[in-house]
Each structure stands twice: as structure tokens, then as C-alpha cells.
């Protein structure tokens, strides 16, 4: 490209000589302008990301601020859409002062997107929003990095003590630091159950009396597979859908349930769940855990067709479960093709709607294989539901007045009436066992019919072992378990390999 | 301008001022040197835009991951590169960078191998099919405009929408291309796909390749067609008069003239293919089909900033190496 340009120039040397002189004069002016622009563009951030550390532990004035003030809560569109109803109950039932307005911001429904966004906001030391709604699956890493306000230090003891005493213990555990201090107030909880079609099971000879019993008394996996298999034979429908794709949902939730209900655990006793990393045993190669994988293989391939299958467990799940996530497993169930589904409460609201299955939808807690008393580890075993749910955490960089206003919000949320109203408004299940199954909540439609099952699930809810290395560990768990249920590896080989990778991750941090 | 001196007054001083010195220096430059001088601001601007992010990524790649802190870890020089390339960090990565063994399974689990397989196969088929499409479109026939629209249409579809189309096609119980073990679809029966293809690395990679070929062949076809349209038609007339067969006309006229265009089109496609991410994320997910960009994004989201920057920089280096192969080849063809 240069060559023709140069040859054109050499045709007219004289003109170029003058042009160069003029060019220099013009460039002098242009250069000065560019220089100015350069100065204006200069940044002044310190960029070390340490701004968060200074303000995490100063106590906040508990008196309500006097001026008109609006605080922002980074939440999701369900909260944003119910803004008015939530504000009404916060003011009327929770006593939130009139001069404080809470604005719920609609964030992404994808939990990972929200996590990334909060990481940016907190790393940059931004003052807004004042309060974050954080998934219990990733609050602890924010705590470990010192990016959240320590509520045990900044809030009055009355609030933090109530949380520790009345709220679901396992939920509170996912908002605590290594020293036991509280960094988040549980906002709502979520626990999966088994949904099933009563109408189809009636055809297989099961009665309403049995359904009533199943609603609160977990059955064994063997019995469950028999019931579903019998219904499959009677109706010709697909049996049991769950989520086996290689994603966070498998390691955090489905596998925690299958494994926990066999008395198995990733890191031994529950005390080790949140650390210390590198000093806890990795126990995924124990027989209980391997049995859980074998049971998943039995569900898919059946004891006769798979040498690794678990005896006594019938083949009740379609091959597709190895590729299913929540919605892909729910849709065939909602379409009426499937007898039973393991899923979160949001799908109860869909499936129990009058134009779907109405009262023909039954709900039961997750079945089990090894009861808690027979389990090697205390508090692990028996019916196990994965623990989902969200906390409210406080931005340590917020202004003092906004922090004061946030204290008033946290206080208002302590009121039982506010919690029940929240359940009514948006289906947000109170993280407080006593408030899940009450006369009031039984009136809710359609979820009210199932609150007793949800309460049992809540009492047996087990969180994922969140630490700063959980994202890495979760990926390895999901891919090994998925490889095994796709028959690429035997359960024993997959779990032995997994143990090696988990130990390697633990040792590298 | 204040720097301008009135002509005639003190001509001696004018010859010795700094302004005059610069002008004289400029006037004594050769034409090529002067051209480069004029291009310097543009180069600087381009350098700032193109290289500053690259340098900044390289700088980040020299620091350790810090899972437990809000900022980056300590300076470790090339430690991240060593750890990733030797496989020392594999346990912490969602998928290994290099294949851990030479089995098919290990290949489809490695970010580099998957990306290379994807790039080679997809660019190969896109070039061949694009070429054929361009040859067809280069003919005069009724409705040519409509065929052009039909061929360009996949290119106009947003990646996410296209990803969802392919995701649904291979979703058991929903997609028509995949059945169940009791009721297998045609592709299952002939053993091409398992009944859960989006959970299987080989199947999913194949599906992503097909999806990419479906979409971007149009891009190749258009570029090659543009090259074909620029060929002087009289060359064909002369060839016909001289008795050249259609194959000879293609071999001696069309192909040599459009070869540089095809090379440029392949270069663009190769660069794009090496960066594949969106289609994978929407069709099969990064866990099943781990490309290099997938690895960068998942490690970044898992707060392994140093590792993420390292993989990003290595990816950029690999792309740069491939680009130079093309450019060297192109330069040789040009001579």
C-alpha cells in the first residue's frame, strides 16, 4: 500500500515541500488539543479493590434516619414487580418509618450473572445499592473476601440473635463467616420435593390415605421406585424426572440429595462443610456415596441392564435425565407425560394450577436410603432436600444514613406478619420453620396444600459446601457424576477420580 | 499562528530556531520516511486501542489467582503459564487446557483440542460449501435474487436464537432429531448420535460444528461471490473461443483469480472460529464443549483472574500464529 502512495508524492515535490510546512503548523494545534483530551481521560482510581475492608465492622446507629431517604435493594424482577405490596407490609406490619423508601432493583434471573455483577460493584467500592440479595450458594466467598458488612458487629444484637435462634440453622450457616459472625439475613428459602400425579397412581391402585401419609413421612428409595414402576406399568407413562446434566444444579442439589439420603457427604461431617479448606477429609469414595451413584444408574438403566446398578431399585427414569436441567425436566411433567418429578417449589405453583393438575398433584419429601441414625455423620442422612434460597447482605461502602435505613428494613423483616405476607405476595417461603406450615399459609393457593411437605423438606434441607473453591469443586463433581450416569465410568472409578481432583483443589489453595 | 515568522525580518534567526530545525528535518526525509511520519499518529491510536488491552491482559496473567481476596494475588511472573501448560493447574480448571492423554475422550475434554477440532472442521466445510454456493450464485438464472436471500438468511439470525433452535432440535422429548432408547430417531438408529447428544462431548461438538457451518457458510459464499463477480467476463469469452472446457475455465481463470479472496475469507473465519463461545453456551454449554473462550469466561467467573488472563493471552497468541501463517502464505501467493 505504501509504494503507490510514495510514487504519487514524488511526482510533485514542490507542492509537498509547502504541504509539510503547513502540516507542521496545523499539527501543532491539533497536538495541543489531543494532549488536553489525554489529560481529561486520565483515571484516578486506586484500583487495589481494598476499599471494602475498612467499613465492614463499624456499628451503625440504630435510630431511624430523619430525612427522606431511598435505599436500593439489588433483587430480581419478582421483587421489583411486587414493590408496592412489599412496601405496604413493611410499613403497616413491620413498622418501617414513612421517610424510608425501599426500591427493589430487578436483576438477572441467572444467579451467575448476579454474582458477577455484585463482584464488580463491591470490588469497585460503589456506594449503591445499599442491600444485596445474594444466593446462599455464593454468599460465603463474598464473606471470605471481606466484601460484606459484618452484621454481628454493625447490627444490634437483638436482630442477629433472633436470626441465629429462629431461622433454619443450615440456612443461617450459609451466611456466616468462619468465626461464626453473621453477614446476611436469610430472606427466603427454597427446598425441592418430589411432585407426583395422584390420578395416575390411583390407576395403579394407590389410595388417598397413602398420599396423605407420603406427604409428611418420607419413604425409602426402594419403595419409591416400586411405586413409580407399578404406576408406569399401569399407565404407560414415563416414570421419574430429575436433573442430571453436568451443571451446578447437579452438584449443589440433585446429587447432594441422592448422596445425603444415602448418608454420604462430600467432606465428612456437616462441621466441615464450610472449611477449613485443605484440612477436611474428602469422603466421596465412601460406599454410601458410590451407592448413591449406583442408584442413579439403576433409575436410568435398571438393575438387569447395568452391572453397576443398585439392587432393588427399578428403572424408572428416562435416558434424557443425564441432559436435563430444571425446566427441561419439568416441561414433560407439566405436559402430562411423566409420573413423578424432583423440582423446586416454583414448579409446584405451575403444576398445581387448576388448569394443569390441580388437586391431582401430590407432593412428598425426598425419599431416603439410610436414616440419620444409621448414618456415619451426624445430621446427614434420611430424607435430604438441597437448600436453596437467598440472603440480604449489606454493602459496607454505603453511606451511614443509608446503612441506618437498612437497619430499619432488617428490623421490619423480623416481623412474622411481614414474612407471612411475603409468602403470600410472591411465594417467598419464610426461612423460619415455624412460619412455613401455619393456618394462614395453608390458605394460600395453590401452594397452601403442600406447606406440610415443604416444612418437612425445610427441616431436612442441606446446603452445598460453599467455600471460595466451591465453584471449582462443583465443576469437577458435576462432570464426574454426569460421566458415571452416562455409563462412561463406573461409579467407583468416577468417585475415586473425583476424590483425587477434590483433594488436589483443596491442596492448591 | 504565533510560531509563524514574518518573511524578510531577521532571516538569519529564522534558520536557527527549533521550528525551522524541525521543518528542515522533515523536508530532508525521504518520501517513504515522510509517509511513515504522517502515519505515526494513526499507528499510535491503533496501538493504544489494539495493544493496550492485550498488554493489560498479559500484565494480569503474571499475577496469581486469589480466590480468598478481593484483589488479584501476588506477582508470580510466568508461573500461570507454566502451571496451565504443564497440567499442574488442571484440577482447578473446568476443563484441562491440553489433552491429558491421546484418547478420543480426553481430546474432547481439552479446551485447546476441542477448539482446534472445531476450527479445522467448520472452516473446511464452510469454505467448500460456501464456494459451491458462490459458484451457483454467480450464474445467471431466474430468481437469483431470492436464492441469494435464502443463502444469506442464516447469517442474519442472532446467535442466541440460532443456539436455541439447535438446542431444541436435540432435546429429548422435544426435538425431532433425537429419540429415546425405546423409540430412537433416525440419527440414533444409524448410530450417529446418542439419545442424549447434548450431554455427550463428541455429539455436542458435532452439533455445534453443524450449527456453525449452517450459519456462517453464507459469509464465505458472499465473500467468494464478491471475488467471482470482480473477474473480467471477457476472459471467459476468450477462453470459450479458444475451446476451454468449463472445468478448464474454472481451473485456469476462476480459481487462481479468487484464491486470494478465499484466503482472506478463510482467515476471517479461522479467527472467528478460534474464538467460538456464544453458540456453545446456548446449544450445549461450556461443560460439555469446552472451547478456549469458554475456559477464559468460566475461570474468570470463578474468580481465577490470573488463570483466565493467561488462557486469554495464550488464545490470542495462537490466533496470532495462525494469522501469520495465512499472511505469509498470502504474501507468497501474491508474488
Automatic annotation (TrEMBL), chain A:
<protein>
    <submittedName>
        <fullName>Carbohydrate ABC transporter substrate-binding protein, CUT1 family</fullName>
    </submittedName>
</protein>
<feature type="compositionally biased region" description="Basic and acidic residues">
    <location>
        <begin position="494"/>
        <end position="503"/>
    </location>
</feature>
<dbReference type="InterPro" id="IPR006059">
    <property type="entry name" value="SBP"/>
</dbReference>
<feature type="region of interest" description="Disordered">
    <location>
        <begin position="487"/>
        <end position="509"/>
    </location>
</feature>
<comment type="similarity">
    <text>Belongs to the bacterial solute-binding protein 1 family.</text>
</comment>
<dbReference type="Pfam" id="PF13416">
    <property type="entry name" value="SBP_bac_8"/>
</dbReference>
<dbReference type="InterPro" id="IPR050490">
    <property type="entry name" value="Bact_solute-bd_prot1"/>
</dbReference>
<keyword id="KW-0732">Signal</keyword>
<keyword id="KW-0813">Transport</keyword>
UniProtKB/TrEMBL annotation, chain B:
<feature type="domain" description="ABC transmembrane type-1">
    <location>
        <begin position="112"/>
        <end position="323"/>
    </location>
</feature>
<keyword id="KW-1133">Transmembrane helix</keyword>
<feature type="transmembrane region" description="Helical">
    <location>
        <begin position="111"/>
        <end position="137"/>
    </location>
</feature>
<keyword id="KW-0812">Transmembrane</keyword>
<feature type="transmembrane region" description="Helical">
    <location>
        <begin position="149"/>
        <end position="170"/>
    </location>
</feature>
<comment type="similarity">
    <text>Belongs to the binding-protein-dependent transport system permease family.</text>
</comment>
<dbReference type="Pfam" id="PF00528">
    <property type="entry name" value="BPD_transp_1"/>
</dbReference>
<keyword id="KW-0472">Membrane</keyword>
<feature type="transmembrane region" description="Helical">
    <location>
        <begin position="34"/>
        <end position="55"/>
    </location>
</feature>
<dbReference type="InterPro" id="IPR035906">
    <property type="entry name" value="MetI-like_sf"/>
</dbReference>
<feature type="transmembrane region" description="Helical">
    <location>
        <begin position="309"/>
        <end position="331"/>
    </location>
</feature>
<dbReference type="GO" id="GO:0005886">
    <property type="term" value="C:plasma membrane"/>
</dbReference>
<keyword id="KW-1003">Cell membrane</keyword>
<dbReference type="InterPro" id="IPR000515">
    <property type="entry name" value="MetI-like"/>
</dbReference>
<feature type="transmembrane region" description="Helical">
    <location>
        <begin position="206"/>
        <end position="228"/>
    </location>
</feature>
<feature type="transmembrane region" description="Helical">
    <location>
        <begin position="274"/>
        <end position="297"/>
    </location>
</feature>
<keyword id="KW-0813">Transport</keyword>
<protein>
    <submittedName>
        <fullName>Carbohydrate ABC transporter membrane protein 1, CUT1 family</fullName>
    </submittedName>
</protein>
<dbReference type="GO" id="GO:0055085">
    <property type="term" value="P:transmembrane transport"/>
</dbReference>
